[in-house]
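User: what does the whole thing look like in 3D?
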Amino acid sequence: MIEVQGLTKRYGDKTAVDGISFTAEPGVVTGFLGPNGAGKSTTMRMIVGLDRPTAGSATVNGKRYADHSAPLHEVGALLDAKAVHPGRSALGHLLAMGATHGIGRTRVDEVIAITGLESVAKKRVRGFSLGMGQRLGIAAALLGDPATLILDEPVNGLDPEGVIWVRTLARQLAAEGRTVFLSSHLMSEMAQTADHIIVLGRGRVIADSSVGEIIALSSGTAVRVRTPDADRFASLIAAPGVTITRSESDLLVVNGVPAPRLGELASSNGVILHELTPAAGTLEDAYLTLTQDEVEYHAGGPGAATPAAATAAMTEGATR
Amino acid sequence: MSTTITSAGTPTDPAGSSRRATLTFGGVLRSEWIKLRTVRSTVWCYAIILLLTVAFGLLLTATFNSRGIGPLPDDGQQAFALQVTTLSIGFSQLVASVLGVLVISGEYGTGMIRSTFTAVPKRIPALLAKAIVFGLITFVVGLVSIVLTALITAPILPGVGIEPDFGDSQYLLGLGGGALSLALVGLMSLAIGAIVRNSAAAIATSLGLLLVVPTVLQILASVTQTTWGLNVATFLPGSASQALYSYGAEGSVINGVVSLSSLEGGLVMMAWVLALTVVAALLIKRRDV
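Assistant: Here's the predicted 3D structure for the full assembly of 609 residues, as structure tokens:
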């Protein structure tokens, strides 16, 4: 369990994290979502005491991280895949980390096996790919069999296979009753991994609820209806609280009427439907709506920051 | 790389068992020992120290010629025997200094420091463990190099007219003092590395303090015809650590110029190490990493 209260970090007159409060519960995967530069990594570093908060507090299982008698047993953290000396082997790194807590070779070999690093364990980390570095970071995080896992952008640099592996691992760790807190700037990643999402923008919490609620929160429930009889069908379903947007001559986007009801209406009135799609507002749309005003660094010119372009970029990033 | 989806693993040491993992200072010491020996630069630096010591000792023994000056007095023979084993220390110190800096600044440069401080979040135990392990190993490597040089050169010395008494306590103290000076200079640099954090800047600072500052002071002293510059230089790490392995060095003030005994030199060096380590500890506790 991670509890954060009024956590603030200022660098000079720039506020990176602005008085945020939230809780990450055991047994669920809590996603920490936000654009780059929103303050996710800073928050995570403050939780494990690498950065000193300007104000507020962060506790893990009821205590400040540094006050635990076995910190690695409380929290396993993957904060920066490059937090390793490149001249040391993966095995040497894990043995050195484990030694601080009396964790020996047996457990080190276990986490090497779990993360699939057996073949490169004795090679120096200098030659590791981004993905292998990420696996080593996860191995280090699992070393102390921690009750809480903090993973900063764990799928960064992983191949699709690795992405699925991290997703499965995160779900499994939560199912074992651990607290799993992971960050990403990729909405689609979160949609598939997290139960609960905290959205951060410019250092502030903009949303804190379940995945389902976040989607509903901003996008409502839109249904795409394609019919050659668009005019007639639009007048049929028109009612207070129902919004109909017509983007093409035969395409209606209906808000406020569930898809099954639309199907029934069409059938009983003899309207032919070519398409009836509940556009369960993607998490991407929700995310962009939520963070639209909070994105601090837009890529390229103003054109690059349009939702459509950003969504495309994110989806691409997710599937790469 | 093959991907297998496996569980986080049944921990060998589940919570609640009697052998539960705990952070201990002994564990942190072991961790720093593993770190020191699993990086190649350490091995290289220590190998260079060993080779330098033996090579300088052999070189000095082989090139010594007493014919012009006649047989040395007993004191001179002892001093020469000590010098054979410690001649290289001026150079070895530079190697120990660079290694001392890298032991900590290397962690800042690579990001390893974040792993270290995640495992040891109170931080100061990690700094102290680093200093203890590095200081101890450097002392041992220094001592082994010096004793090895003494053993190798012992059969050659009589051939050049030197027949030292190897049981002489001053001589033996000098051997230990040489190793100690190496360790203390290394520790001073480790503290500087922890303060400065950047490898290049910390190495420049350490070597500047060892080499450049004393030279500047000497030039000042000769230009201004005063002794204060020389007296300041006496208390700098380079000169103070030298007193540790100078045969029978006795503290004195001659014509206003101070010189330190071995004990005084050792104490001055320890004061340097202590002061810089305290500063490093205060900073390491406060800074973000």
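In plain terms: The radius of gyration of chain B is 23 Å. The mean pLDDT of chain B is 90.
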